[in-house]
Batch of 4 targets.
Target 1
Amino acid sequence: MSASRGHVTVMIISDSGRSPVSIKFSKTAFKIILGVLGLLVVALLIVLATYTTLLNQSMERARLVTEVEQLRRVTAKVDQLEQNLATYRVMLKKMTELAGIDLDAVGLSSLDSQVVGNYRTPVEQNASVAQDAHAHPIPSGYPVKGYISQSFRPEDDNPRMRHLGIDLAVSSGTPVIATADGVVTYAGWDSTFGWKVVLSHADDLETMYGHNDSLLVQVGDVKKFGETIAVSGSTGVSTAPHVHYEIRRGGVPINPEDHLDKRK
């Protein structure tokens, strides 16, 4: 390529030994061509970046759709189990009445929770227990009577699958209770967990309750074990109504299932 006054000459030399081909452009035309080529390169980079983003979003959407379908199947199983359990209770009551057996006397007035597949049937926990005068400074039980749809996985190889708490599938509008005596340190909107509540407890522990439909506390409120602090929903990044529940000690997540029966 050579430049003369007012013009730019581009020479194309072939390896086959053919005579060179010269193309002469005015400097203005050459600048325009370079500008167009530059714009094409920028446009190509934008298209590639947009395509990558859309591809990632499509993959994320597919993952969320799969999770929704799994949760729907679990919910259907739960509903069927509840119907079966109700039927069995009615049958048991009729049979014991005919036999003259007092269920309360033999400790069979209610059925214990069981493990079904990878999910648990409703946990009989604090929400149905009347409050007493004893202190409960350490988290115990679950904040709702629900089913574990996502377990505690803090070190999964796939960062997207890491889960620092447990998800309890419940219908919207379920009362969410404090699992220990504590002070509300956060009550507001979170881009991931929607309407979120955080309580501080003894032993450098704190609990977090996410994806609520509405909050019933404010920062600074002192709440007792078993008191309602929110109403469940599906706010934030959520595919179905549930409560995301975390326990942290010194800011480090610990498995909530390790605190089911610890009461002090």
Target 2
Amino acid sequence: METKIKEIFKKIFSAEVTSIKKLSGGISFCTYKVVTETGKAYVFRYGENYENTGGRYIDIGQTFRREKFFFDTISNKLVLCVPHIYIVDDSHELFDYTFEIYDYIEGCSLEELTSDVNDEVYYKIGKIIASINKIKLPDDGFTEESWSSVFSKRLNERLKPLVRDNLINQDEVKQICSYYNCFKFTEDRFFLHLDVRKGNIIYKDGIIGLIDAENAEFGDPLFELARIDVYNEMKESFYKGYMDEMGIKDINRESIQYCGYALEALAFLTNVFIHEIDAEKEIVEDMKNRTIKMKDKILSAIS
């Protein structure tokens, strides 16, 4: 594999590779840090198409192109340290897998930092994420499908596998999905990272960076917040920064709209913990219980 990566870098950048190190990456990807003779560090990531637990076919080339569109747009509109993606290649002419190459962002993730990061940094991160969530998708943007359609399909996709795990039954899935399929969502589409957690926020010498946008979507900013809440890694100062940038006084976590977003996020992580990664039993049980609790809350509200 390393020999092949060296050949690809020689072909694309006309530079010899001096070091290759495998990194921890996404569930569906293999990720390497690659340094060339110029001293420049890159990330080389590859994967192949697959069907997820909900039955949706995932096109890795489309995933990588969406990530590139997300970061390219952000870098043009905001002063923020994000990776520049040089190439997304799913031609299989240079490599047997779909791959992308992008800048390696120097620094440590908040997850890696041994000392506690102060509230001021989290406040700034909150403002950054809000700034991203204020970027509106242009009419000729990456997708033509409505947000209502995207979310309704995604919710059904997340809930279906949980039937097998006895966390929800078919009638409940039908009732919940039918409700949100008819729900009047705002159709304005905004940029959503959808993986805002400590592992994807880089910090060095006062500079904040954001990486790993393969989950990027274009929709309702409240969906971003629901996903962040489910991860439960941000300090209160993050939310203060977010609300200040958005110009809002509070976040309505009791609304049926928020609850639907939270259920999708909880179901997503529950599927990951049960079927895709080796998580500790206590974490899996907690996620299951949170999913059931949110499901019951929605059913009570819409019955």
Target 3
Amino acid sequence: MTPGLYLKRLFDITCSLLALIALSLPMLFIALAVKFTSAGPVLYWSDRVGYNNVIFKMPKFRTMLTGTPAVATHLLDDPDRWLTPIGKFLRKSSLDELPQLFSIVTGEMSIVGPRPALFNQNDLIELRTAKGVHLLTPGLTGLAQISGRDDLPIPVKVDFDEYYLRNRTFFLDIQIVVMTFVRVLKTEGVKH
């Protein structure tokens, strides 16, 4: 492991463990809210594409009704009808992503990297593989996330992912984390 990757991993573990401790009570309240506002499990385990295109199970607080097709939200005929009563709020605030802190601790994800594709997003997976992006550990946030998120077409997302691949530094990661907080507070780029 290179010194840069070692520092990144140390940063990931330290920050995610601290965040899990600090957010344990809010996460408990979110879990209870999910449980009491819709039928089904608290967590949704999504099959996602990880490092070197290996599939892993990524946890999220469940924001969709049980039985929702396992496709990207924008591909649903009427995404809003599939949302739970608190699903839209959890997605807009990105609070549904908090369980992914556990995936960062285990090393399946990083704090910063390309967002993990759904297992069936073949167009995104193929483009990332062609540009070498599949060799990055997927992230809780990334350059595409702070640059438009759901508003970006897939080729543009992959261009941001490739830029990150070619120019990643610890300083860039810190910039992306700071900008993520700004975007989350403004709820920018989230359609559903």
Target 4
Amino acid sequence: MFLKKLIKGIFKLLKTKIFIPYKGIKKNDILIFDNIYPHPISGFRLEEFTVILKEFKNSKILTVDDSYSILNTPKKNHPIDVKNLILNNYELKNKIKNKRGLVNVNSKLFYCIFISNIYSNIDWIEKYKIPFVFTLYPGGGFKINDKLSDDKLNRVFSSPFFRKVIVTQEFTKNYLINNKICDEEKIELVFGGVVPQISLNKGLINKKKYLINKNTFDISFCAAKYMPLGIDKGYDVFIKFAHNIAKKYDFINFHIVGGFSKEDIDISNIENKMHFYGYKNFVELNDFFNNMDIIISPNKPFVLSKGAFDGFPLGTVVEAVLNEVVALVSDELNENKIFINNEDLIIIENEPLYIEQKVVELIENPEKLYTISQKGREKFYSIYSNQYQMIPRIDILKKELNK
């Protein structure tokens, strides 16, 4: 009778939706956690975690579907996404675990991205004495001069099991050092972010270019909608710019990818030139950008909430440039330390007339458009290759494992 109850109790624990960590006999080298993987919209997660899981034979990732709603995706799609990932990466079949019920967390090293993810796991990580490394991307709960964010950072960095933090912006590194939040020797800077390598390893035989194989000039805007009017991403600025420049040229079209629609801001005067596509995954973006000439990204820091900011440049901008689309991007925090203005991309002010001036220069001087599109792609190809992005990350993890 006791054994029967014990077995029944174990099965009940296995089926519970509550996360119950325990330290089992089998020990992983690396245990990863993420709350969106393997959603196809989040291409950088797909690439980064898949590469790590393949590089380290004795590794696994804990996943949950809690954040699928942020991407306007039903939770029931999570197991479908897992199944599709395994179809193309069979070696990952036994490496993806649901963070539900009894879970063996015995591991030499823990890894995740974003402060929100490491903070939500820190208690059990410390309980089971697991050293950890994480990447502090902009977003994911990380804000500047924000008490709640700073408290989370201080809690994580003060842990006796904290080993390294990878940052993707020099601005982030300076903030941590100048505010005495983290010792410099524990910070590793790898500029930019991870990009699906399929975005790099493709031909552009279907690329459409203004005045070469099409007569239209196609302008794109790609961003998630997190607030009314999309002010944090500069959608309001983009629409004002669109109204202005549409009066000058009748061959211009505007293409919006993300959470926006014609209901957000009045576009009645240019509605016939506006095209809305909703969200697209990185594979769909490749086809989309084949028809674009430029992408405009006038995003603004500290607007979505106090201290909130985006990395430079946005992931959609990277996808665009890799498809020989000229990027016009704002950089109020002076995060850019890699790309040459007016050669690899164009730095803009968040002001409609300023953006209009820069776009008119490209329309009236198509050779400048072609030159920047080609040089930009070459530079981005180098910076966003796995050689530049993933090798340093893997080396950091290996060094920590070998200590």
